[in-house]
């Protein structure tokens, strides 16, 4: 038996892996002869996007020439790509931007495009840089653009590109700069570069950079690609020198001594191959003039050797090399490299800023000494220093080699001098061993912090992107460079699940899918231009029952009364077939029908002559009404069948009364043929898709409408879900979801759509290639998995799957493991904040009004109580073994109880201003409480005595949680911060701000790799936000609105329970 071909998506992944690994690969190697059009386009597009992301400039025309048989769909795909990933309405050459006429595009980057332009006022040639606009531009792009303008305005030097003016034209910011007629230094660099030319270029650039430093500007991204070469000015300078450099692109520049707007600890800005260690370590805000000196050394190194000192790809290995390892000596790649020039280069590339040239001017001066044949100020590293540095990097190896060498030479006559020298190196190595161990540990920690920062930065894009473009978001999640597998935590898994959408794809028709109709019993009916009508009893698990209904192709399909399959074809016939006897001869009605629609017993067909044919109720014969003066192309029947809507070539939608064919309303304003119509579940609105690429929703009552922009080509399918969610699909490969207000919620880009329908919790798309694609409907807003009438104050989850929630009205609701209806019990007259299950799941503890802690069994029968508190409990928690329970009360005390004996073990002193939260350490030894005195206190669980007071919150401490290993404690407060305390150390806590409300809940995932935090509270019934944090560094990985406290991770880490309006939501990550 021949195995099935490897899925196109998997082949795309292999293609991308080779390209990202630097290996040659082309889509032709991965496209199979058996691939359909969609699969082939997916593979070709994967190569195009990957090359673009790797910094290449792939041309769509090249791909069209390589795949002429895919020209049509590829042109559409590239148009979609430009619309989504390129600028919105990028200016064309010949267009005027302010006073500048654009002549030709010179280059394009992630943020902007640069054009050669002519100033219409004086004819001067300029380079005009435009910020890319559109909904996908990040806000910080505008900040960097403004910063570049501010920086350039300060500078005036012959080796720096001049700024002529900055402005805004038609809402688009632009910079007009000096036009440089030559290439970039990156375009001419190579291992054969003349060493004197290399020295001269870097000397001029260093002098210009020093000038910028004296004006308070640090570039922070010096590299060959940001150095332009002017052939014109070289003629006015040194006639023997053909390369006159000009530094450009100050987008990452900062003011010396400033806090560097937009950067903070953990930010990595610049290009890794030329980046100083302090910059690569995530301290971009501290990168000063020495960082530019380092980068100049990197430029010189590449001019001499043809490669940068370190791989520019942002991998963990490269980061470690930049932070800790020296670059290979230039003479290894270029034996003829002059020793003095190598010395200059390596001095610039010293790891410690103080080891480099003190200023860029000092670097320029030493380069001038080299060019003049004079001795350098910098000296090469001697053998002893080199040995010591090698020993510092590898102390254990140095000690072993040194001891062996010393023993060998020590027994040889006349080798005392060598023994002395080796002994010195060994002594240095031994002396540095402990210190270097600490330094390397610090470097490793800094590397880890940087990787964590990059990971968090990647994930922060996901809340918006996963909702809007989940398929594109999957690409970000799959990128192992910024989302390495070892860092993938609950946050990553949650968004990965959100973006997967459980896609199912199956070939259905040999030609375009005309209509998709789900039936109440779960069956699916489809028709295609291949003439087949199919009924899928268990799609996609079983083949369909099929009948060749119309040999020339099916034009329309409907299902009447869940009994009759009605189809119309190009043969001017309408066929009625019973679902239960699809293969039986049909009842045939002669009619040239363009579209069909039904609601229960009402069936409507529309014709090319403007007529509508209606089968209504129990009437045996249809009634024909002329409802339009032009050809009709689409119809929809309103719920209940009282009205139907028709659309045609003139773009007008007419709402018709079914009973008598009277047109009650004309909805005018569209252009082009109407392709699809659908009524909302309440019948009050009708959605329209047409040839003009716009979907529109009309209010039937008053004729007002709202346009739904975003499609690029004809909208061929529209459908409402029972919830009112609207789906639209078209030939631009988009499947879009829209909210009630007409706001676009989600955009899937997969296949050219021709039909769409909702089926339970899934949406099914029919495609132009004859496939059916089914997706899980994206979760577009938080919704309760456990609904309650009152806001939830506390939650608990049993090992057997039972779930308990205490609400603000004092009621406790219990749900069974199978998620059946919950049973509510009134247990208090005050908010019920103290609820917990014992680890074995058989015992439930909750607070009462009089201060008692009550135990209940699985049948909710009382099986004991703990008596001692004098006011209602505000929190309870069991130990990991279930033998101990801790409680906190409004009486200001925390108590430790023996569960089996139902007796008190210890009581803490009353907290001065009242207790608000409590937690027990994983080993059961420490109780943590927070209160109104702003402090967090640690208590001995055996004696109740104080252990420590953690100060730092500036308002009430509202939440506490121990990490699973007990080494850290997370706290949340009314000061809108979260603090993470290292309980084994004595340093300050990590502080995370930026919350819009008081932080009432903090929770660690069971594996300790995610810290979930939530603001918002049951007492206010207002949403806060849910933030996922790095539990060690505090980096925010993602922030979700509309959630609030309380929070609780499922025991296996596969779900997080979080408060929402109307109950408790379940965020799944498995």
Characterization of the model:
This is Serine/threonine protein kinase. Keywords: Kinase, Repeat, Serine/threonine-protein kinase, Transferase, WD repeat. Residues 100-371 form the Protein kinase domain. 23% of the residues lie in helices and 32% in strands. Helix 2 (37-53) crosses helix 4 (71-85) and helix 19 packs antiparallel against helix 20. Residues 133-140, 235-241, 256-268 and 382-422 have low confidence and may be disordered. By secondary structure, it is of the alpha+beta class. It has a six-stranded antiparallel β-sheet, covered by helices on one side. The chain folds into six domains: 8-85; 96-178, Phosphorylase Kinase, domain 1, CATH 3.30.200.20; 185-380, Transferase(Phosphotransferase), domain 1, CATH 1.10.510; 397-455; 504-776, Methylamine Dehydrogenase, Chain H (7 Propeller), CATH 2.130.10; 792-951, YVTN repeat-like/Quinoprotein amine dehydrogenase (Methylamine Dehydrogenase, Chain H, 7 Propeller).
Main features:
single chain, 1070 residues, alpha+beta, Phosphorylase Kinase, domain 1, Transferase(Phosphotransferase), domain 1, 6 domains, six-stranded antiparallel β-sheet, four-stranded antiparallel β-sheet
Structural class computed from helices and strand pairing:
alpha+beta
Our estimate of the beta-strand percent is 25-35%
Q: What's the CATH C level of the largest domain?
A: Mainly Beta
Name of the CATH homologous superfamily of the largest domain = YVTN repeat-like/Quinoprotein amine dehydrogenase
The overall strand count is: 66
Biggest sheet: strands, sense, closure?
6 strands, antiparallel
| CATH 2nd-level architecture of the largest domain | 7 Propeller
Integer-rounded radius of gyration: 35 Å
- Termini, distance in Å? 34 Å
């Amino acid at each position: 038996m021949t195995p099935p071909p490897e899925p196109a998506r998997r082949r795309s992944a292999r293609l991308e892996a080779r390209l990202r690994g630097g290996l040659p690969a082309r889509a032709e190697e991965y496209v199979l002869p058996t691939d359909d059009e969609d699969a082939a386009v997916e593979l070709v597009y994967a190569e195009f996007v990957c090359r673009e992301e790797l910094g290449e400039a792939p041309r769509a025309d090249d791909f069209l020439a390589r795949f002429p048989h895919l020209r049509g769909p590829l042109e559409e795909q590239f148009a979609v790509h430009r619309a989504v990933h390129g600028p919105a309405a990028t200016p064309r050459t010949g267009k005027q931007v302010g006073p500048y006429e654009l002549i030709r595009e010179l280059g394009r980057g992630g943020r902007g495009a640069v054009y050669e332009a002519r100033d219409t006022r004086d004819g001067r040639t300029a380079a005009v840089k435009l910020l890319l606009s559109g909904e996908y531009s990040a806000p910080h792009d505008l900040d960097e653009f403004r910063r570049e303008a501010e920086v350039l305005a300060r500078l005036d030097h012959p080796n720096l590109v001049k700024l002529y003016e900055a402005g805004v034209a038609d809402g688009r910011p632009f910079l007009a700069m000096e036009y440089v007629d030559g290439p970039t230094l990156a375009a001419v660099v190579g291992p054969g570069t003349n060493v004197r030319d290399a020295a001269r270029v870097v000397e001029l650039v260093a002098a210009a950079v020093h000038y910028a430093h004296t004006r308070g500007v640090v570039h922070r991204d010096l590299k060959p690609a940001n150095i332009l070469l002017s052939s014109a000015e070289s003629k006015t300078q040194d006639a023997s020198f053909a390369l006159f450099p000009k530094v450009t692109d100050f987008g990452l520049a900062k003011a010396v001594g400033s806090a560097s707007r937009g950067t903070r600890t953990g930010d990595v800005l610049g290009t890794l191959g030329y980046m100083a260690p302090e910059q690569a370590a995530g301290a971009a805000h501290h990168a000063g003039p020495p960082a530019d000196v380092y980068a100049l050394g990197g430029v010189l190194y590449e001019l001499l050797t043809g490669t940068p000192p370190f791989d520019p790809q942002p991998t963990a290995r490269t980061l470690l090399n930049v932070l800790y390892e020296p670059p290979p000596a230039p003479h290894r790649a270029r034996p003829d490299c002059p020793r003095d020039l190598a010395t200059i280069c390596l001095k610039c590339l010293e790891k410690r800023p103080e080891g480099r040239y003190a200023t860029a001017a000092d670097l320029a001066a030493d380069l001038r000494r080299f060019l003049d044949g004079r001795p350098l100020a910098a000296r090469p590293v001697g053998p002893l220093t080199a040995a010591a540095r090698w020993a510092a990097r590898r102390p254990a190896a140095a000690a072993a080699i040194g001891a062996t060498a010393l023993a060998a030479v020590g027994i040889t006559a006349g080798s005392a001098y060598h023994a002395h020298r080796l002994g010195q190196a060994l002594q240095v190595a031994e002396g540095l061993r402990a210190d270097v161990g600490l330094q390397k540990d610090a470097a490793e920690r800094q590397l880890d912090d940087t990787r964590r920062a990059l990971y968090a930065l990647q994930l922060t894009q996901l809340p918006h992107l996963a909702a809007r473009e989940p398929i594109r978001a999957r690409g970000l999640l799959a990128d192992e460079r910024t989302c390495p597998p070892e860092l993938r935590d609950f946050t990553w898994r949650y968004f990965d699940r959100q973006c997967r959408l459980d896609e199912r794809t199956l070939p259905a028709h040999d030609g375009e899918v005309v209509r998709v109709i789900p039936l109440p019993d779960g069956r699916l009916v489809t028709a295609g231009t291949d003439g087949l009508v199919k009924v899928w009893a268990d799609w996609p698990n079983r083949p369909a029952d099929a009948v060749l209904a119309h040999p020339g192709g099916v034009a329309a399909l409907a299902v009447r009364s869940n009994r009759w399959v009605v189809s119309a074809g190009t043969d001017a016939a309408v066929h009625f077939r019973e679902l239960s006897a699809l293969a039986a001869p049909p009842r045939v009605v002669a009619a040239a029908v363009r579209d069909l629609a039904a609601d229960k017993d009402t069936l409507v067909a529309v014709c090319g002559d403007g007529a509508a044919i209606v089968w209504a109720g129990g009437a045996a014969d249809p009634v024909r009404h002329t409802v339009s003066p032009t050809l009709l192309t689409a119809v929809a029947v309103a719920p209940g069948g009282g009205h139907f809507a028709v659309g045609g070539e003139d773009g007008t939608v007419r709402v018709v009364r079914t009973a008598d064919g009277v047109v009650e309303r004309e909805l005018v304003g569209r252009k082009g043929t109407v392709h699809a119509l659908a009524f909302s579940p309440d019948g009050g609105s009708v959605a329209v898709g047409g040839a003009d690429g716009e979907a529109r929703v009309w209010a039937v009552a008053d004729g007002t409408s709202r346009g739904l922009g975003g499609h690029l080509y004809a909208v061929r399918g529209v459908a409402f879900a029972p919830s009112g969610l609207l789906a639209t699909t078209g030939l631009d490969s988009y499947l879009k979801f829209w909210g009630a207000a007409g706001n676009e919620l989600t955009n899937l880009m997969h296949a050219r759509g021709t039909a769409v329908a909702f089926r339970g919790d899934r949406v099914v798309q029919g495609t132009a290639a004859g496939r059916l694609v089914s997706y899980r409907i994206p979760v577009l807003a938080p919704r309760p998995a456990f609904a309650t009438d009152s806001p939830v104050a506390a939650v608990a989850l049993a090992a057997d799957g039972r779930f308990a929630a205490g609400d603000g009205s004092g009621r406790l609701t219990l749900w069974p493991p199978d998620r059946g209806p919950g049973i509510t019990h009134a247990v208090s007259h005050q908010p019920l904040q103290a609820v917990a299950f014992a680890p074995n799941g058989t015992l439930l503890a909750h607070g009462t009004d009089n201060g008692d802690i009550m135990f209940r069994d699985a049948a909710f029968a009382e099986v004991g109580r703990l008596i001692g508190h004098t006011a209602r409990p505000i929190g309870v928690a069991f130990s990991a073994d279930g033998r101990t329970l801790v409680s906190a009360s409004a009486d200001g005390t925390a108590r430790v109880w023996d569960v089996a004996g139902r007796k008190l073990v210890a009581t803490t002193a009353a907290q001065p201003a009242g207790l608000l939260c409590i937690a027990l350490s994983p080993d059961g030894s420490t109780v943590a409480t927070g209160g109104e005195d702003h402090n967090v206190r640690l208590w001995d669980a055996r004696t109740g005595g104080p252990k420590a007071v953690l100060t730092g919150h500036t308002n009430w401490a509202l939440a506490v949680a121990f990490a699973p290993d007990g080494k850290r404690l997370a706290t949340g407060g009314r000061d809108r911060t979260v603090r993470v305390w290292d309980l084994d150390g004595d340093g300050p806590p990590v502080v995370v701000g930026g919350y819009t409300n008081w932080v009432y809940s903090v929770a660690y995932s069971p594996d300790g790799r995610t810290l979930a935090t939530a603001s918002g509270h049951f007492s206010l019934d207002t949403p806060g936000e849910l933030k996922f944090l790095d539990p060690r560094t505090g980096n925010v990985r993602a922030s979700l609105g509309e959630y609030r406290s309380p929070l609780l991770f499922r025991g296996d880490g596969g779900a997080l329970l979080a408060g929402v309006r109307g109950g408790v939501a379940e965020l799944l990550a498995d």
